[in-house]
Amino acid sequence: MMKSMHISLKAGEKLFLNGAVFQVDRKVTLELLNDATFLLESHVMQPEDTTTPLRQLYFVAQSLLVDPANADAARGLFFRQLASLMTTFTKPAILMNLDDAGRLVGEGRTFEALKALRGMFPLEEAILNCAVPPKVA
């Protein structure tokens, strides 16, 4: 039996539910009574924010939820990008989390994969900041 889920939204906030976008005009709590695929607006990455390899992978994974009509193409792109990143990164923590994210997407647990990818953003940022040579005055 599916346990219901409560989602609280603030006025003006958006909810992406099974590919549809809802915007509420006042504070509201929704109760989902069955399985649904959703993203809160705070978890939706905009194209202009895809400035790093992990953020680009996140954006592709997110499209599985936001645009289910094109999920097959997005899934293929996700796994191609994932394979590329697995050969690019060398840090074991990132490789392990990338492997987990790929497994989760493969199991249809995309929301959990997004959470795993978001958790790697600070580590990726630290790696990229260390890789940037100091500015010469």
Walk me through the structure.
This protein is α+β, with helices and mostly antiparallel strands and about 140 residues long. It folds into two domains: about 5-40, no CATH class; about 45-130. The protein has four helices and five strands; from the N terminus they run E-E-E-E-E-H-H-H-H. The protein has helices at about 55-65, 70-90, 90-105, 110-130; strands at about 5-10, 15, 20-25, 30, 40. The strands form two sheets. The protein has a three-stranded antiparallel β-sheet, covered by helices on one side. Strands 1-4 form a two-stranded antiparallel sheet. Strand 2 (about 15) and strand 3 (about 20-25) form a beta hairpin. Helix 1 runs antiparallel to helix 2 and helix 2 (about 70-90) packs antiparallel against helix 3 (about 90-105). The longest helix has 22 residues, at about 110-130. It is globular, with a radius of gyration of 17 Å. The chain starts with a strand and ends in a 6-residue tail after the last helix.
